[in-house]
Amino acid sequence: MSGKQTDSGATTGYEAELWAMADTLRGSMDAGEYKHVVLGLIFLKYISDAFEERRAVVLAKWGEEAAEDRDEYIAENIFWVPPEARWERLKSEARQPTIGQTVDRAMAAIERDNPALKEVLPKDYARPALDKQRLGQLIDMVGNVRVGDAEARSKDVLGRVYEYFLSQFASAEGKRGGEFYTPRCVVRLLVEMLEPYRGRVYDPCCGSSGMFVQSVEFIRAHATGNANGGRARGDISIYGQESNYTTWRLAKMNLAIRGIGGQIAHGDTFHNDRHPDLKADFILANPPFNVSDWGGERLAEDKRWRYGVPPKGNANFAWVQHMVHHLAPRGVAGFVLANGSMSSQQSGEGEIRKSLIEAELVDCMVALPGQLFYSTQIPACLWFLARGRRRRGEVLFIDARKLGRMVDRTHRELTREEIARIAGTYHAWRTHDDGYSDVPGYCKSAPLGELRKHGHVLTPGRYVGVEPQKDDGEPFQDKMKRLVLELREQQAEGARLDAAITESLHGLGFKGR
Fold first, then answer.
1. What is the arithmetic mean of pLDDT over 163-176?
2. Under 8 Å CB-to-CB from 269, ≥6 apart: which residues?
3. CB 395 within 8 Å of CB 458
4. Best label site of 146, 324, 354, 479, fewest CB within 10 Å?
5. H-helix or E-strand containing 446?
6. Angle formed by the axes of helices 184-194 and 416-430, to 10°?
């Protein structure tokens, strides 16, 4: 393994090289289609690696008959791979014109023998539009990477490759492709702030399951040492829903490659809530921004709209109230919304926001820097809602708009240090820690009275104030004399240039009036 770890958790080098090779084989195929071709093969290689490693152990200990016993694999939480789906079979037929049919049969066989993967794997490799020569080359390329054996699993090779590929596809597809992908640094910030150590974790629009993956990684990262007093050792239960069928399949595969179990349902969250009785301890989500065609006219009497009926033309506050509805008595929610949600007064949104604030549900607001998302350039913010709040009568505002660093020409990411700073500020404030204090231009704990004066607008910039400017030591009178002298010199230079331009125009015969 080679490569450099970035602050956001992505790895450049190994994954980037693999992506570059895969991308050259895409040809003219649309990135949205190619995404499922590549990720499906990588997933198949993963379960094949794990299977073959276990098969070698069973074969050495108990012989051929035991090595073909499905229970020997299921008992070790390893997917059973039937003979027609094993990687060696695909590799041997990679150059055949029928390779697409071979892959489809392999995917179908794996789904047949592993109920957890039913209707999850892509099975359209035989379609005429998919170049079979390129498919064979892709199989050869993926075949050279060990992603599922014990060593690779310990380094989360597949998880890192999968995450990197998802981000690259999101970038390649632009807005349409980025809808299912939340940048890793944003997920990490939500997870670090909420600390979902144990209990029920819910995402009503789970996309490719990034929130869940980060939650489990967070627990594993904090499960040793005494920095958290052992709090991270509890288990979590995962619940999610995704309306887009192909994205739902990505979510199921993303969890499966990490051995994470969860109840991930497919369907429209508003009109077919698949977890109607769930009361979650933690909710993490990145709902699609400002959705206008969410069918709100058919849900005017819905019991979820306790704080006001959301407008038919914008689903933002439908998402907010859906999450509030699913919060446990001491549950906490953190989610991404467009900045307009903090101040909009249209179609009753201001009244809904006011009701949420007055009900003591709004805990913290974070203004994010721009250019974090692949899917939109709309400025975004983080909302944190909590039942049974520790800090009643006040709301924490954090203005992080000036944070982050550019990782390429169009995208920004929050660094690990910045994520730790924001999360640390929130935790210190919530626990009444002596380490918290207002910082002008960055954070402010504002009482409800101040929010009322601002019409229940939740934009952090209205509350945190301006960052103090450093005193350069120059006396005011001296500075003003210097600045006035500079202004006069600039004015004189401007007059000289105007005269020179006029003289040049006259010389060309343009005398004007």
1. 65
2. 204, 205, 241, 243, 322
3. yes
4. 479
5. strand 443-447
6. 20
